[in-house]
Amino acid sequence: MELISKVKISCFRSIKDDELTGIKNFPTLAGLNNSGKSNYIRALNLFFNGEVEPQLGFNFSRDYYRADIGGL
């Protein structure tokens, strides 16, 4: 039984705009340190439970994606 088949995350912490497709029964997130793996889990937790981490709600200044613009 496939519960989640696709995840699209935009403007959340370090994730500007990304889509995960082809999710099967046992998905695995793998990547380098500090590449945003935990932010995918936090985004799913926010969607399903209304909080980023247990007992920690969404905070716009911390959780909304911000692009740093230099030279201005």
Distinctive features:
72 residues, two-stranded antiparallel ribbon, globular, 2 helices
Number of helices: 2
Backbone shape: globular
Quaternary organisation: single chain
Strand percentage lies at 15-25%
Main sheet summary: 2 strands, antiparallel
Number of strands: 2
Radius of gyration: 14 Å
Widest β-sheet, arrangement of strands: 1-2
Low-confidence stretches: none
Based on secondary structure, the structural category is alpha+beta
Range of helix content: 10-25%
How far apart lie the N and C ends? 51 Å
* SSE pattern, N- to C-terminal: EEHH
Name the average pLDDT.
79
In short:
The chain is α+β, with helices and mostly antiparallel strands.
Q: Topology of this structure?
A:
Blueprint: E1 6-12, E2 15-21, H1 37-49, H2 60-63
Antiparallel strand pairs: 1-2
How would you describe this protein?
The chain has a domain at 6-23 and 33-63. Helix content is 24%, strand content 19%. It is built from two helices and two strands. It has helices at residues 37-49, 60-63, and strands at 6-12, 15-21. It has a two-stranded antiparallel ribbon. The radius of gyration is 14 Å and the shape is globular.
